[in-house]
Write the structure tokens for this entry.
Amino acid sequence: MTEQIRIIEAKDHVGEVVRIGAWLTDKRSSGKIAFLQLRDGSAFFQGVVLKNEVAEAVFQTAKDMKQETSMWLTGEIHEDSRSHFGYEMEVQDIEVIGSSEDYPITPKEHGIEFLLDHRHLWLRSKRQFAIQQIRNEMIRATYEFFNNEGFIKMDPPILTGSAPEGTTELFETEYFDKPAFLSQSGQLYAEAGAMAYGKVFTFGPVFRAEKSKTRRHLTEFWMIEPEMAFMHQAQSLEIQERYIAFLVQSVIDNCAYQLKLIDRDIETLKQYTKLPFPRIRYDEAIEMLQKAGFDVKWGDDFGSPEETYLSDQFEQPVFVLNYPKAIKPFYMLPEEGRDDTYVCADLLAPEGYGEIIGGSEREVDYDKLKAAIEAKGLDLAEYEWYLDLRKYGSVPHAGFGLGFERAITWICHLDHLREAIPFPRMINRLKP
Ligand code: 4AD
Ligand code: MG
């Protein structure tokens, strides 16, 4: 029996005759030879069919089949120094499994809306393959990092009654006879987890009814939210920078082929593994922006031009510390000696990718937290359980949230978040 392998395993089978299940992505043929561009989900490579070496019917099949035809191929694996994959198959036999006619995504250029309408097929293309594999590596690396650091993963609910990040961006749904919201953030639950297990992280989908149509916003995205008991903000910042450097290093180490497919420069990425990352205060950031001619004043939130300018001043990601209270959520710890700032930080990614992490030390005092919830006009009844965490052995704690698609978009150097997630959800898109 011929051994069945995946394309990615070709390097271990040079000189052997093997069987591969694959789809045709493109094809070139002349009178004597056909070059089949093949993919099987593990990698892309070429099958060469020589007219004089195969049965006539096999050569005819190779010449006739169309893009995305699926097939079993049998043939011998050779090294192929001209391709960046490095191996190819000299095909001996082809057995078509499923035919394919008029595949909508041809090798020519297509508009973005057309591609998004065909996302279920677009995922098959080389670039999308590479991005999703890098996403997968970042998922793997996230679990490895937090497991090594002694965190446990905790899964917060998605149907909730609370609005940690503000009430304007909630998706409401019916929960029997009551309204409920799709979770904006797992943080409040992660805080309960930290008080139970010390160090926890969440990793799941969150939802924001963002009306903004920008390349940085999805309505459904994935967030990693670590939360640590007995830790202050400075320690949290150290975990954040080590985590980001670990993600980047893991992609460099394990995704060289994928990075090549999307033309991402590895030397640039290496810059982002150097620690520590610079830290500036919000106050300084405002001064830097004003000096550069931006029309901003103390108290303003940053838009993407401001974030891009700030991050362009540094070669690594940069932490902006201690934002004004008015533009941040209620649960943060006020800065000592100041009545207008919180102990918090956003991490801005280089190359114009903006905020990828938001985090803070948390308010630990029962009365102050209660007052902060009331000041935001939130329904106290929904936060009683959260206030309990300050009633029974409250301790200093800090945490942060990494926007997973923002991090992928930056590491892969994409134009828009929509390519970082298999099926993007945006203001005008719920299909496919
Ligand atoms: O800054 P945010 O709103 O912080 C929180 O949700 C906190 N509860 C985190 C914590 O301390 N545990 O969101 C965190 C990150 C942002 O830095 C950004 O990267 C990403 O989530 N993000 C979005 N990503 C895609 N689409 C959107 N609409 C996003 N909104 C925020
Ligand atoms: Mg934020």
Summary: The domain at 3-98 is CATH 2.40.50.140 (OB fold (Dihydrolipoamide Acetyltransferase, E2P)). DSSP finds 13 helices and 17 strands in the chain. Residues 164-165, 185, 187, 208, 210, 217-218, 221, 223, 225, 355-360, 399-401, 403, 405-406, 417 surround 4AD (ligand 1) (CB under 6 Å). The mean pLDDT is 96.
